[in-house]
């Protein structure tokens, strides 16, 4: 379970970063 959490953390961060970038592009 801990291992999955470790692997999911970076993926979640990347997804959040991508979502923010997409939002910024939409605002532009």
Automatic annotation (TrEMBL):
Name of the protein in its database record: Chromosome 6 open reading frame 136
The organism of origin for this protein: Homo sapiens (Human)
Gene (name only): C6orf136
